[in-house]
Amino acid sequence: MNFLETPIPGAMVIEADRYEDDRGFFARVYCEQAFRLAGLPVIWPQSSSVWNRRKGTLRGLHFQDAPHQEAKLVRCAVGRIFDVIVDLRPGSPTYRKWWGVELSRENMRTLFVPMGLAHGYQTLADDTEIHYMISALHVPGAARGIRWDDPELGIPWPQENPVLSERDRIWPDLGTWHAGKLRAKEEHHD
After folding, report:
1. What beta strand segments (E) does 11-150 contain?
2. What's the farthest any 2 CA atoms get from each other in the chain?
3. The model scores a pTM over 0.90
4. C-alpha–C-alpha distance, residues 176 and 5, integer Å
5. What domain range includes position 104?
6. Terminal-residue alpha carbon distance, the chain
7. Cα–Cα distance between 83 and 76 in angstroms, integer?
8. How many CA within 13 A on the CB side of residue 100?
9. Which residues are catalytic?
10. Residue 94, number of CB atoms within 10 A of its CB
């Protein structure tokens, strides 16, 4: 396995070593020892699969608010996606910046998303399935999001007119979310 740094500190692309023959291929996509040596989490109490019917489906940008933050391992098992992370960690050199990578069944890449980042993706093929390993249990009341088309971020999503859920249409933009966090912090200290 190869662990590749990304422009967002702590996030990594993991490339599986792939062994092919007449039957197909074998690839290890997770190894506790290798992850531990790379400084990544090794306990994943939750795993989820997401199937997307249509090309252009966009999910995100999602995260869980503190103290229920979660790290994720994201892998596209069938199809292709443009996967995006946004750094929401104050004090990070890439705070309020995004980065994206293509994940597909063919390239066998996995994206490690550290705690404190928003995550989303857009499908680049019909019938796309994504597999997640998640470092914390989902807490519905802590679920948050940032608007997918926030002009501050300017993410160049590859497909126009995305298929979106109602919830993903109405998330706040990054500036509104940030202002709300600052207000909540001030109220907490009063």
Report:
1. 12-15, 18-21, 24-27, 46-52, 58-64, 72-78, 80-87, 98-104, 109-113, 117-123, 128-134, 143-145
2. 67
3. yes
4. 30
5. 44-189
6. 49
7. 10
8. 18
9. 62, 132
10. 18
Does residue 177 belong to any structural domain of this protein? yes
Tokens for 106, please give them: 């063919």
Going residue by residue through the chain, which has 190 residues, state the pLDDT in tens, using 9 for 90 and above: 999 999 999 999 999 988 889 999 898 999 999 999 999 989 999 999 999 999 999 999 999 999 999 999 999 999 999 999 999 999 999 999 999 999 999 999 999 999 999 999 999 999 999 999 999 999 999 999 999 999 999 999 999 999 999 999 999 999 888 777 766 666 655 5
Structure tokens at 11: 């996030």
Contact between residue 132 and residue 70 where contact means Cβ atoms under 8 Å apart = no
| Residue linked to tokens 């928003």 | 118
Residue 148: burial class (beta carbons within 10 Å; 0-12, 13-18, 19+) = buried
Kindly state the tokens that stand for 161.
């007119």
**Is residue 17 domain-resident?**
no
Domain containing residue 111: CATH number: 2.60.120.10
